[in-house]
Every structure is written in C-alpha cells, then in structure tokens.
Amino acid sequence: MKKSLMFRNALRQLRHGFNRPFMVMFESTLHCNMKCGYCAIWQNQQPEDRAARERVFARMDEAADFGVFAWSFSGGEPLMNPNMPDYIEYAARKGFFTSMPTNGLALKKYAEACVKLDQLEVSIDTLDREKFAQRRGIDGLPVILEALDHILDKLDHKTIQINAAVDLDNLEDLPALAKFCSEHGFLLHTEAVHNVVRTTWKTEDVEMEQEALDRVATYVKNLKKEFRCVRFYTDYFRFYRNDGFNKSFPCRSASHLVNMRPDGSIQFPCAFVSLHRGAPKMSLREIYESPEVREIIRQSPDMWDFCKGCKIGCPYEVSAYRNSPLTAIRSAMDFMRLS
After folding, report:
1. Stated pTM of the model
2. Three-state DSSP class for 170?
C-alpha cells in the first residue's frame, strides 16, 4: 500500500511540475505537558476546538487523492490528543510515510500505536537528569527512557529518532547521547535551538550568534565521524547561519506543506502565522483552488516581514525541495543512508 501511494503520488507531482503540497503537518493539539525554556507553546493552554475523528480521516482520504505522500503528526504534544492511536492506524493503512515528534511522556501508554509510525521522534537533549529537568521544565527523563525500553520490545523495522535541540549549554552532553543511540539502534538528529515565532505567543530570544553556531556545527560534524547514528544536515546549518528564509531562499510552506490545525482547518501561509484559514468542512481541493489561497501562494516567494529570518525545520524541508533540487537530493541521500 505504501509503495503504491508513493508511486502514484510521485506521478501526480511530476504532472504538476512538483509544484503542489506533498506533506501534511497536522497539529493534532496545541497543548503540551512540558515547559521547555526555548518554547512558548505550553504558556497558552487555552481550550481548543479539535476535529471529530471522521473529519481527520476524511482529510487523510483527501490528501491521498491530492498528491500527498507524507503525513506528520505534530503539536504541541501529539499524544495529548486521545484520538492519536486511531489517527496513526488510519494514516498507516492509507499508505502515507508517517512521522511524529513526541516528548515521550505518554509513549509507553500509546506504544502499540506508535510502533506503526515509519519514524518516531523522541525529544531528548541530554541524559543528565538534572539538566534535562532544567531545560524541559519537568523531571521526566526516567519515564521517557523506560518508555523507550518498552517500545523496543514491540518495534519491528521502523525508525526511532532522538531529536536533540542543541545549544552551548548541552553541547558536551551529545557524546553520551550518541553512545546511547548507537547502543539502542536509534538515530540522533541534532538541530540548533531556534525561535518559534507565533503571532500571539512570545518566548525569549534563544537563537545563537554565528560564532556559537559554528562551534556547534564543528562539534556535531566531528561527533558524526565517531558515531554513524548521528544525523547532521550541513545545508540546514548553512541556512540557519545565513539568517534563515530570505528572497533568494523563500519559504514554500504555503504551496508545499499542508498546515492542518487541531480543528481540521488549513492555515496559510504556515502553521505559525495565519493570514487565512480554509474551513474544516472544505475539501483540500476547494481550499487550494480558492482565490484567497491562490493569491497567498502567489505572494509567498516575495516574503512577508514575519517570514524573514525564520529558521523552523519543517518549512525549511519543503522549501529546500522546491528551491534547490540539489539540496533536497543531498538531504534525501543522508536520510536514506541512515534509515
């Protein structure tokens, strides 16, 4: 089923000049049960509208027919949405390449569903329990490590990736984390800490200056030579060092990433800033053919002020695919070689 969907939708993308969405990022909830110092999402835990399960299933059907072949469950903390096991099961049956980042606190509870993901991403910045609690706002490391041990017994051929948000504070903790990943068969994905801009939520400025970023890049590249499990994207770090999105490398989130909110609406131009939302009851085709969305997609390469300097990973990935084929190919080769 997965190969069939990938092949069919690759042909659809080819017919459209690779100029349409190929990935859904579904923010299944904006709630979170951690209090990370470099993230503000947990500060805004207001009641939210969540789509009925059948509406999310319908979105998956629409996406499969629209040319999408990758589905990412995001948040907040995705596992705070109680319908996640059903969503993972349905997406797997549809044949999407599925991925989900999680802080891991509820991983053991939902292990049976999570093993069906193609890529499970668990956020761990350090194995130092005290430092973990300081960075993440909760003493949750023992619970997460126990859950990882539990899920390994159920895992078949899927990939577990440890996501480490890196700055100078935890840089020297990475060798122990890489050794842990190597011993357990995990990948270690390192990404420099960056600001996550949302129009109504503020957090401290956590982005690193170029000197600090160069130090991080050099350290991680050397670590990769020692541990094959370490994943390091040189092009992304160069993008970060060059101040993120700009007119020569514009964000393509509006045209290539379906940004789906908890209520099933589709937000433009990205998940973090809203100029327009396609209503939950509208189909993807109706939304993307609407005059409002066509105009936003037309304008997006010219860059709104709120886009300039953004360094967020998901919009970068789809933008690299569209802006620079060579960058996309290098990233894909690195991803496939390690998976």
Report:
1. 0.90
2. coil
